[in-house]
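re: ur msg from earlier - yeah i can do the calcium ion complex, just paste it... oh wait u already did. ok heres what im feeding in:
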Amino acid sequence: MKKLLVAGFAALLASSTAMAEVSQEAIGKDATITNEVVTNGMGQSLQRFSPLKQINKDTVKKLVPAWVFSMGGEKQRGNEAQPIIHDGVMYVTGSYSRAYAIDVKTGEEIWQYDARLPEGILPCCDVVNRGGALYNDKFYFGTLDARIIALDAKTGKVVWNKKIANYKAGYSYTAAPLIVKGMVITGNSGGEFGIVGEVQARDAETGEMVWTRPVIEGHMGTYKGKESTMTGTLNATWPGDLWKTGGGATWLGGSYDAETDTLVFGAGNPAPWNSWLRNAGTPTEGNKGDNLYAASRIAINPDNGEIKWHYQTTPREGWDFDGVNEVVAYTDREGNKRWATADRNGFFYVLNREDGKFINAYPFVKNISWAKGIGKDGRPIYNEDNRPGDPSKSADGKKGETIFAIPSFLGGKNWMPMAFSQNTGNFYVPSNEWGMDIWNEPVTYKKGAAYLGSGFTIKPLFEDYIGSLKAIDPDTGEVKWEYKNNAPLWAGVMTTAGGLVFTGTPEGLFKAFDDETGEELWSFQTGSGIVGQPVTWEMDGEQYIAVTSGWGGAVPLWGGEVAKKVNYLNQGGSVWVFKLSK
Ligand code: CA
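and the outut:
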């Protein structure tokens, strides 16, 4: 009897200290399970919609802080991560490749992991990290020196640490990894350094590579250590050897649609920015200068890394309109299965979920200058005079004609994720209204050096605002409501069944809007700019909401006249958690 009691007690102890592991099934159901958030995007389709409604249009005014956690560190830079919530623990990443596990009830730290970054890393757009992934007993996240690390979720100790690519050649990593079919799937960053975009799939348990898929034509993929197939057709849309340093960084990670068993990753700008070097012709001379698959969305078979379809948003791209923005799987009001994506180039696209076929596209920012619209064939109808001029045609051959292009290269929308509401059927898109002077220059590739062939200055379009959160009907492109913000918006958006839309501002305010009218119902000052991604979950019968605060990202570094306008904003580094007051 005594023995039994002791054994029972030991078993009880073991069960109370062992973490409940996160299964692939739980990851697949994340969008509907409300007591945890185990995927980036609150579900692998990236809708960022929660069925929770305790916090709603009536109660949101009672939302108050439950705790705040400082990420510490002497250098406070942009905090763009989405927290992961599981089994009483919050996992969140911070600037400079740091990761934290926090007791979600008390806000106390359980462990912290600081990656030891080498000298000479080349992050283009601040030392950010956009979050990690949880699977089985490990927490995965990528580092600025282009590595992917698996940590023991309980202790924060390294289980394995693998190199994605060579940071000395300009590669880095900032996205949240994706967990699909027992694999950790990553992209890469470095599109301003003439790298080659790639998607890699590793065995989550061991870190061993399963397949790789470069996204620029001419490069070979691999499967289980052997060459598999070539991406595209060599020199079909790239002249000479330029494909070898062709860019197309897959820097924002991807989404997974279980219904069609498809991974979708976006590819950034072709390199260099100067489009005349990649194609001296015009789009009317056929598609030879399209530079596939840069500035495209690419669907990949997760079992072998083969490309299923692609859709190029900006063929012959020449404004740094990266095609990386998130692709959200949703079902429209008539029951059609669709993808939606809001591109850097200012157009909101609807694609058919099964085959990626173009359905429709609408402008979602004002005064777009580079194209008149998107044709029925899905290709842009270019304004040729809004392409930066060819420097080889200038008097001294050193600077092409400067043009003023809208949107700016930081995009009608940048990395910050939009949300879809299953309540309203609308998308809520964090956008910015700005333009740029841009010109082209000669450039040659040098390993580890910026490879642009372009100069630029970003400028605001309107005196009173740059940021614009828009409710967009994906069936018609109609903007149902708009919230205007002085500084450019750089935070993710979340929708809830409580009829609320949450996002944050660089001015530090975390805000809730009515999903139907856009009326601002609540806001809270977090002390530094919000460029993070909110999440919500329920615990002990109460609904919680979390967001990171900490100004940074690309705007202060690349924003030209806009950066000067917002240089008063203070940096920070914290996680805020809210619930309703009793
Ligand atoms: Ca880029």
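cool cool. DSSP finds five helices and 40 strands in the chain. ping me if u need the other ligands too
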